[in-house]
Amino acid sequence: MYIMDLSGLHFDSNLITMLRGALRSLSTFITEHYVELIRSFVLVNAPEFISMIWSIAKPLLPEKTRQKVIIMGASHWRREILEMATPKALPAFWNESCENRVFLAELNRSKPVDRNSLYKSDPKETVASGYYKQLNVSPGKSSYVDLKVEKFETDGHFSFGFYFVEDEKSNQWKMIYPRLNHIPGPTYVPMSGQHKSEMTGIYRLFFSNEHSWFHVLKIRYRIQSNLNKEEELEKIIT
């Protein structure tokens, strides 16, 4: 059983994005590969607006996942949760507003995240300044970028793969990194990585927007190449 305490949660439009993206992908993965891992997702002390968000997110989730979600409002959730779990497994700090010490697990509260520590993009790192290039992928289509080392960010969900081809016209794509068929977006923190080029040819970063009906996927990317001195000399000579 997975229990999430929603005490102090305030409405934010990003909650809907999170449900449609990251949580949807996570729940789908668990349902498909670890069917018996989680019996129930229980939300306790849920604010009233959670019902509205749930009505939006519910149709997007697999049927098996929907059946596992239990929402407990602010009124009687302490009594209701005791019908599902033993007091020894529930946090003692839930006793603060109770007359009796019912919950017995000595667990630490989660700490608030300092918003100043969250990732913030540099205003100078834009397409207009030349720091990034931009690739637009139409709904239902896919595209690719040829590069060696990549850094990119997107404004929506996407599929992604990394391949090698001997030349631009080749139809034989050798997989360098397994294709991920659904990555939640938008990517608030740019994704980055590097690859040591051991073969002469083209390294191809593949993107797909085939799951989308209307949204044109915008991908901002930056190519960097780290050459050693021998490679730099060879590049100058040739």
Q: What does this entry show, briefly?
A:
This is CRAL-TRIO domain-containing protein. This protein has 238 residues and is α+β, with helices and mostly antiparallel strands.
Describe the structure.
The chain has 238 residues and is an alpha+beta fold. It folds into 2 domains: 93 residues, 3-Layer(aba) Sandwich (Phosphatidylinositol Transfer Protein Sec14p), CATH 3.40.525.10; 111 residues, GOLD domain (Jelly Rolls, Sandwich). It is 21% helix and 27% strand. The chain is built from 5 helices and 11 strands; from the N terminus they run βαβααβαββββββββα. A 4-stranded antiparallel β-sheet has the order 4-11-6-9, with no helix packed on it. A 4-stranded antiparallel β-sheet has the order 5-10-7-8. Helix 1 links the parallel strand 1 and strand 2. It is elongated and about 70 Å long. The C terminus is likely disordered. This is CRAL-TRIO domain-containing protein. InterPro entries: CRAL-TRIO_dom, CRAL-TRIO_dom_sf, CRAL-TRIO_domain, Ctg-1-like_C, GOLD_dom_sf. Pfam families: CRAL_TRIO, F28H7_8_C.
List the topology elements.
Elements (H helix, E strand, L loop, with lengths): L1 E4 L8 H20 L7 E6 L2 H9 L5 H6 E5 L3 H5 L51 E5 L4 E5 L3 E5 L3 E8 L8 E10 L7 E3 L8 E7 L8 E7 L5 H9 L1
Parallel strand pairs: 1-2, 2-3
Antiparallel strand pairs: 4-11, 5-10, 6-9, 6-11, 7-8, 7-10
CATH architecture descriptor name of the largest domain: Sandwich
Helix content: 10-25%
Rough shape? elongated
Largest sheet: 4 strands, antiparallel
CATH topology of the largest domain: Jelly Rolls
Number of domains: 2
Strand arrangement, largest sheet? Answer: 4-11-6-9
Q: Report Rg.
A: 24 Å
Q: Low-confidence parts, pLDDT < 50 over ≥5 residues? A: 227-238
Question: H/E series, N to C?
Answer: EHEHHEHEEEEEEEEH
Alpha-beta content class: alpha+beta
Name the average pLDDT.
Answer: 77
Indicate the CATH class of the largest domain: Mainly Beta
